[in-house]
Amino acid sequence: MPKRILEGVVVSDKGDKTVVVKVERTLLHPLLRKTVRKSKNYHAHDEANALKVGDIARIIECAPKSKLKRWEIISPSSAS
């Protein structure tokens, strides 16, 4: 099974080798047929501590690295 790849904005870089990435997605409300935005935060492993708050990050699934980290950074592209 292929690993999922998500893209989002870094909202926290306080942890050592860890960033929190907010991923937003849009969906259609089943009854109202209105577009709704949902977001979720993912803890991702950032080995080089390269990303800062506001950067765009692409993350990929990986084996658990800690209690919360199940994702790691693919490409740190700055767009602040």
Automatic annotation (TrEMBL):
InterPro entries: NA-bd_OB-fold (IPR012340), Ribosomal_uS17 (IPR000266), Ribosomal_uS17_bact/chlr (IPR019984). It comes from the Bacteria. GO terms for cellular component: cytosolic small ribosomal subunit. One of its GO terms (molecular function) is rRNA binding. Signal peptide: none annotated. Keywords: Ribonucleoprotein, Ribosomal protein, RNA-binding, rRNA-binding. CDD domains: Ribosomal_uS17. HAMAP family: Ribosomal_uS17_B. One of the primary rRNA binding proteins, it binds specifically to the 5'-end of 16S ribosomal RNA. Belongs to the universal ribosomal protein uS17 family. NCBIfam families: PRK05610.1, uS17_bact. Part of the 30S ribosomal subunit. This is Small ribosomal subunit protein uS17. The gene is rpsQ.
